[in-house]
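Q: Got a minute? One more chain.
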Amino acid sequence: METTIAIEWILACYADDVPENGGACVKHGDEQIAVYNFSRRGEWYATQNLCPHKQQMVLSRGMIGSAGENCEPKVACPFHKKTFSLLTGECLGGDDYKITTYPVKVIDGKVYIGVA
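A: Always. Here it is, folded:
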Protein backbone atom coordinates (compact mmCIF):
# COMPACT_ATOMS: atom_id res chain seq x y z
CA MET A 1 0.00 0.00 0.00
CA GLU A 2 1.41 3.37 -1.01
CA THR A 3 1.21 6.33 1.35
CA THR A 4 0.46 9.72 -0.16
CA ILE A 5 1.74 12.81 1.62
CA ALA A 6 0.02 16.09 0.84
CA ILE A 7 2.48 18.81 -0.16
CA GLU A 8 1.74 22.46 0.56
CA TRP A 9 3.74 24.84 -1.64
CA ILE A 10 4.83 27.92 0.31
CA LEU A 11 6.29 31.06 -1.20
CA ALA A 12 9.80 31.16 0.24
CA CYS A 13 11.38 34.15 -1.50
CA TYR A 14 12.17 35.67 -4.86
CA ALA A 15 14.81 33.97 -6.99
CA ASP A 16 16.86 37.17 -6.93
CA ASP A 17 17.06 36.91 -3.12
CA VAL A 18 19.30 33.82 -3.31
CA PRO A 19 22.86 34.29 -4.56
CA GLU A 20 23.97 32.27 -7.57
CA ASN A 21 25.75 29.08 -6.46
CA GLY A 22 24.86 29.87 -2.87
CA GLY A 23 22.11 29.71 -0.32
CA ALA A 24 19.77 31.73 1.83
CA CYS A 25 17.66 30.95 4.88
CA VAL A 26 13.89 31.34 5.09
CA LYS A 27 11.68 30.81 8.08
CA HIS A 28 8.46 28.80 7.91
CA GLY A 29 6.69 28.62 11.25
CA ASP A 30 9.31 27.41 13.71
CA GLU A 31 11.50 25.90 10.97
CA GLN A 32 14.52 27.41 9.28
CA ILE A 33 14.88 26.16 5.71
CA ALA A 34 17.99 26.61 3.58
CA VAL A 35 17.32 27.35 -0.10
CA TYR A 36 20.11 26.84 -2.65
CA ASN A 37 20.43 28.32 -6.14
CA PHE A 38 22.81 25.86 -7.82
CA SER A 39 23.03 28.00 -10.95
CA ARG A 40 26.02 26.07 -12.39
CA ARG A 41 23.60 23.15 -12.74
CA GLY A 42 20.46 25.20 -13.33
CA GLU A 43 18.87 23.57 -10.26
CA TRP A 44 17.30 24.60 -6.96
CA TYR A 45 17.32 22.69 -3.67
CA ALA A 46 16.06 23.13 -0.11
CA THR A 47 17.06 21.46 3.16
CA GLN A 48 16.74 22.05 6.84
CA ASN A 49 19.12 24.81 7.92
CA LEU A 50 20.22 22.94 11.06
CA CYS A 51 23.48 21.01 10.73
CA PRO A 52 22.91 17.86 12.81
CA HIS A 53 26.61 17.50 13.65
CA LYS A 54 26.92 20.42 16.07
CA GLN A 55 23.26 21.58 16.07
CA GLN A 56 24.02 24.93 14.40
CA MET A 57 21.71 26.82 12.01
CA VAL A 58 24.31 27.27 9.26
CA LEU A 59 23.69 25.07 6.22
CA SER A 60 22.33 27.97 4.14
CA ARG A 61 25.84 29.44 4.35
CA GLY A 62 27.52 26.19 3.32
CA MET A 63 29.39 25.54 0.10
CA ILE A 64 27.52 23.68 -2.62
CA GLY A 65 29.15 21.42 -5.17
CA SER A 66 29.06 17.94 -6.69
CA ALA A 67 30.34 14.63 -5.32
CA GLY A 68 31.43 11.35 -6.84
CA GLU A 69 31.11 9.81 -10.27
CA ASN A 70 27.41 10.65 -10.43
CA CYS A 71 28.11 14.33 -9.64
CA GLU A 72 25.56 14.23 -6.82
CA PRO A 73 24.70 17.75 -5.62
CA LYS A 74 25.88 18.38 -2.07
CA VAL A 75 26.25 21.03 0.61
CA ALA A 76 29.12 21.24 3.10
CA CYS A 77 28.61 22.71 6.56
CA PRO A 78 30.66 25.92 6.71
CA PHE A 79 32.10 25.07 10.14
CA HIS A 80 33.03 21.39 10.23
CA LYS A 81 32.72 20.44 6.54
CA LYS A 82 30.24 17.58 7.01
CA THR A 83 28.74 17.08 3.54
CA PHE A 84 25.13 16.16 2.78
CA SER A 85 23.34 15.11 -0.39
CA LEU A 86 20.94 17.78 -1.60
CA LEU A 87 18.83 14.97 -3.09
CA THR A 88 18.50 12.54 -0.18
CA GLY A 89 19.88 14.39 2.85
CA GLU A 90 22.32 11.55 3.59
CA CYS A 91 25.72 12.43 5.04
CA LEU A 92 28.23 11.74 2.26
CA GLY A 93 31.15 11.30 4.66
CA GLY A 94 29.81 8.04 6.08
CA ASP A 95 28.69 9.55 9.38
CA ASP A 96 25.28 8.66 10.79
CA TYR A 97 23.71 12.08 10.16
CA LYS A 98 20.85 13.00 7.84
CA ILE A 99 19.10 16.25 6.96
CA THR A 100 15.57 16.86 5.71
CA THR A 101 15.24 17.85 2.06
CA TYR A 102 12.31 19.65 0.45
CA PRO A 103 11.09 19.88 -3.16
CA VAL A 104 11.56 23.28 -4.81
CA LYS A 105 9.99 24.93 -7.81
CA VAL A 106 10.58 28.37 -9.31
CA ILE A 107 7.70 30.06 -11.13
CA ASP A 108 7.85 33.59 -12.53
CA GLY A 109 10.89 34.46 -10.41
CA LYS A 110 9.32 33.19 -7.17
CA VAL A 111 10.78 30.27 -5.21
CA TYR A 112 8.32 27.80 -3.68
CA ILE A 113 9.18 25.06 -1.18
CA GLY A 114 7.03 21.98 -0.73
CA VAL A 115 6.33 21.16 2.91
CA ALA A 116 4.30 18.27 4.31
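A: The radius of gyration is 14 Å.
Q: Perfect, thanks.
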